[in-house]
Amino acid sequence: MMDDLHPGGQPTDGMGCHAGADQMEAAARAAGKSDILDQYAKDYPQGPHDKPQSMCPAFGSLRVGLRMRRVATVLSGSACCVYGLTFVSHFYGARRSVGYVPFNSETLVTGKLFEDIREAVHKMADPAKYDAIVVTNLCVPTASGVPLRLLPDEINGVRIVGIDVPGFGIPTHAEAKDVLAGAMLKYAREEIEAGPVAAPEAGMSDRPTVTMLGEMFPADPMSIGAMLAPMGLAAGPVVPCREWRELYAALDCGAVAAIHPFYTAAIREFEAAGRPIVGSAPVGHDGTAAWLSAIGDAFGLPKDQVAASQNTFLPAIKGALAANPIKGTVTLSGYEGSELLVARLLIESGAHVPYVGTACQKTRWSEADRDWLEAHGATVKFRASLEDDLSAMEAVKPDLAIGTTPVVQKGKELGIPALYFTNLISARPLMGPAGAGSLAQVINAAIGNKDRMSDMKAFFEGVGHGDTAGVWEGEPNLQPAFRAQHQKKLEKRARAAKAAEMI
Question: Between the CA of residue 423 and those of 92, 327, 334, what are the distances in Å?
Fold first, then answer.
């Protein structure tokens, strides 16, 4: 449910999220948000397309906050945006309320909205309930310059973390996770520098730890921990964390594993704390061998100590891959950030993967995966657009297409078996021996549905597209005159906009 933290009536926004991204960004810069937007442009550079093609970016940071114990989340944005984000967060299993500070044109313009936000966090700041309160500006408050930086750092011992997550400044919801993770790590790092901090509830490890960066299937950290044990190391917390005190333990590590390599803000905080960063992940035979060596180098371990883990786990991984082969051509795309890792695992399982697309940006921490994939015949596209993914699928005509919802929809329309990456692929173990055999069953079952997909395509052939989609008892009631009139209006508007550009 949404908590209405302000007793006012139905809010209306000033500029509104119907305004274009360029107008929103210009307004934000004019309102004093240039530093934040410049940092986002540096951390999350966009591709040739100028807008996100994942869900609203704020969903990523919202999800991170809602998964943390004793952390409250407050949104400030247009009512429609807050409703949608709240709905999708509960669809994905959130079990707590989302705070909401509504506004109207008057409170936005006069600065009353900021006063309402400050009043709301003061009312909520109960140390018996919360360690921290996260306040998030959505598009309109960001464009209007609502200054969350002026909120107090803490109230009654409750930390206040304010972030701006505008859709016009952050390309994907995956990278918005990094915005909040980085902000929390910065706060926690400064707390550590100021004096002693509390240990996490789970206690401290008696061995040097490796902090893991990026959301993973719950079994993967345990698999990584088992592979680190022969080297005298232990798996540390996973960032984004589940409780505030885990942030301290995450910073108190020997090295950071950038399992998802796009966490730029988080990596900046770890580097500020003097922690080395290791890219890629222990995925498949080659990936595991290289990753364990890189971890050994980061800790300065003797070669025989690294070899002890490699000799224990690499044969098991090779055996699992051989026992669970995948035969067929697969195109793969998504916006989670783990697409390159999944592609490596598919190729080592025997699949032919000619195309890998990810909505996330290229970083130095993804170079090893990109190089390995390209050496094995894959074209890797960073900041891939939906059009890139669809073009690749249509050109390759694979036995299976793995991708986002519209890719899956188009694949099935073409009679190509398709799987949704987020729910069916990333929700499985990928690391170590467990990950080596985890994908074969679902992939092979989907490839085996080729004949069924062909039958379905033949059955529905000719039922129509666009206005004629569906099953009709008579002829569809088309309105070509209205369509032509509306098209003329659009063309007239486009000519006027072009003329305005030339003035």
Answer: 11, 22, 11
β-strand 154-155 against 158-164: which pairing, if any? antiparallel
Largest CA distance in the chain: 78
Which of 311, 336, 354, 326 has its CA nearest to residue 443? 326
What one-character-per-residue DSSP string does 325-380 give? Answer: ---SEEEEEESSS-HHHHHHHHHHTT-EEEEEEESSPP-GGGHHHHHHHHHTT-EE
First to last CA, the chain: 50
CB 248 within 8 A of CB 270: no
Burial 196-209 (b: 16+ CB within 10 A, else e): ebeebeeeebeebb
Read off the tokens for 335: 């916006």
- For the chain, the domains span 2-171, 209-318, 324-459
Bond before 141 cis per omega within 30 degrees:
no
Q: Are 251 and 189 in contact (CB under 8 A)?
A: yes
Question: Which residues, including other chains, have CB under 8 Å from residue 386's CB and lie 6 or more apart?
Answer: 53, 404, 406, 407
Q: Which tokens go with 53?
A: 């093609």
Q: What is the spatial distance between Cα 307 and Cα 313, in angstroms, rounded to a whole number? A: 10
**Sole residue written with tokens 């080729």:** 450
Supply the Cα-derived Rg of the chain in whole angstroms. 25
435 backbone φψ class: left, alpha, beta (φ>0; ψ -120 to 50): alpha
Separation CA 370–CA 383 (nearest Å): 13
Alpha-carbon distance of 297 to 301, in angstroms, equals 6
Residue 101 in contact with residue 74, Cβ under 8 Å? yes
Other C-beta atoms closer than 10 Å to the C-beta of 128 total: 8
| CA 423 to chain CA mean position, Å | 13
The pLDDT tens digits of the residues spanning 322-361 come to 999 999 999 999 988 899 999 999 999 999 999 999 999 9
- pTM summary value: 0.86
CATH code of the domain occupying 209-318:
3.40.50.1980
79: its two tokens:
């009512």
Neighbours of 55 (CB within 10 A): 17
CATH topology of domain 324-459: Rossmann fold (3.40.50)
Q: Render pLDDT for 289-313 as a digit per residue (tens, 0 to 9).
A: 999 999 999 999 999 999 999 999 9
8 A C-beta contact, residue 13 and residue 103? yes
Cβ atoms within 10 A of the Cβ of 420, count? 17
Name the CATH superfamily for 2-171: Nitrogenase molybdenum iron protein domain (3.40.50.1980)
Q: In CATH terms, are 2-171 and 209-318 the same topology?
A: yes
Verify cis geometry, omega within 30 degrees of 0, for the bond prior to 240: yes
